[in-house]
Amino acid sequence: MNTRDLSANAPYVPGRGVEEVARDLGLDPEELVKLSSNENPFGPSPKAVEAAREAAESAHVYPKAAHADLTEALAERWDLAPEQVWVSPGADGALDYLARAMLSPGDRVLVPEPGFAYYPMSARYHHGEVATYPVEKADGFAQTADAILDAYDGERIVYVTTPHNPAGTELPREELVALLEAVDEETLVVADEAYGEYTDTPSAAGLLDEYENVAVTRTFSKAFGLAGLRIGYALVPEAWADAYARVNTPFAANAVALDAALAALDDDEHVERSVESAKWAREYIADELDAPTFESAGNFVLAEVGDGSAVAERAQQRGVIVRDTGSFGLPECVRVSCGTEEDTREAVETLNEVLADLEPGVEA
Ligand SMILES: *Cc1c(COP(=O)(O)O)cnc(C)c1O
To answer: What positions are modified (N6-(pyridoxal phosphate)lysine) (predicted)?
Structure first.
């Protein structure tokens, strides 16, 4: 037998894992500086770790109460009804739930190019078709309603990433409002705020009372440091919030993740430290790296280095892992995640050595 035709479904290419690279280089993983996946360099909140340990003791029970508790806490935080909070396995899971709720076979979606790989993947998994709108490097990856609307042709879902991955730019609030006003009534705009904690721009969640065609996705993977637990959520308008019950996988997230997320949500100190440190690191990278960078509102910086894959490869040989953005359609760039102060300094120093070695006419 065969699967259905999956030829349009490109596999997701993650940043390389630290164990994998360490093995290749014959190094201890501890010796590597891994700044390739926008992970939290401080790890999870200690309170979340404690909650996860405790939850593990009850891992034989289906997570009904834990799901309700996290949903309630998020509803309170965002000043929404609990129905409007769609808890999911990672924000990626929320993207799936939204696609499942919106797409009929053959419906089209509009995704940013370059952009986050999972939007088109999720749409295709749900029998959707994919069109793209450009986020132009020539404009410093500026995001505007007009640039999206130029490409827009009545698609069922339009994905925007703010702050954008991998560029770091934002779609300003007035541009998002202009977009919501301009698209068809039956077009959902998904505002992906995976990096929302790192910016001072208010969340699009504030628009949910006024607009029925917007949904917001958020995650515990980045500022909360729980990427390994796969926990995130969507915030949706009241009008169709009850669709969740019809599209989610039963017990939408696991009990350990739910309890850890609930504890993490309460640890303001950990989030603040993570965000402040990322703000320092992105300034440091922009100031000290010997390559043009783009202003970032996230916990990473995109840098134009010439040959991204050569730079990433050579940096890796010296123990610093950054993201080669070839898979995003930006082979001339690398994306450097914000690390601890020590790791960020080391990464910039190593990258600068690599860049100097690679300069034209200089033999490496
Ligand atoms: C990291 C990321 C996500 C979600 O990650 P999860 O780990 O699935 O929560 C979503 N969108 C963008 C743009 C991201 O970079």
So the answer is: 222
CA angle 21, 231, 42 (to 5 degrees): 50
- For residue 222, how far is its CA from the centre of ligand 1 (angstroms)? 8
Residue 21's pLDDT is 87
Distance CA 90, CA 68 (A): 17
pTM above 0.70, yes or no: yes
The minimum-distance atom of ligand 1 relative to the CA of 161 is 13
Distance, in Å, from the CA atom of 328 to the CA atom of 166, rounded to the nearest integer, reads 8
Pocket test for ligand 1, best of 95, 122, 171, 192 (most atoms within 8 A of CB): 192
> In the chain, where are the structural domains located?
18-44+268-357, 46-265
Domain 18-44+268-357 architecture: Alpha-Beta Complex (3.90)
- Report pLDDT for 111: 98
Is any atom of ligand 1 closer than 6 Å to the C-beta of 308? no
Q: What pLDDT does residue 168 have?
A: 98
Query: How far does the centroid of ligand 1 lie from the alpha carbon of residue 67, in Å?
Result: 20
- Residue 361's pLDDT is what? 54
Say yes or no: CB of residue 194 within 6 Å of ligand 1. yes
Residue 364 pLDDT > 50: no
Answer whether residue 97 shows pLDDT above 70: yes
Residue to mutate, 219, 258, 338, ligand 1, most ligand atoms under 8 Å from C-beta: 219
Query: What is the structure's pLDDT at 11?
Result: 83
Q: Is 221 in the pocket of ligand 1 (CB under 6 A)?
A: yes
For ligand 1, say whether the CB of 85 is within 6 Å of any of its atoms: no
Name the CATH code of domain 46-265 (choices 3.40.720.10, 3.40.50.300, 3.40.640.10, 3.30.565.10).
3.40.640.10
Q: Which residues contact 301 (CB under 8 A, 6 or more apart)?
A: 168, 282, 285, 286, 289, 293, 294, 335, 336, 338
Per-residue pLDDT tens for 319-328?
999 999 998 9
Residue of 13, 88, 92, 296 with the most ligand 1 atoms within 8 Å of its CB, for mutation: 92
Q: Count of alpha carbons within 13 Å of 168, Cβ hemisphere only?
A: 24
Burial of residue 66 (CB within 10 Å: 0-12, 13-18, 19+) is buried
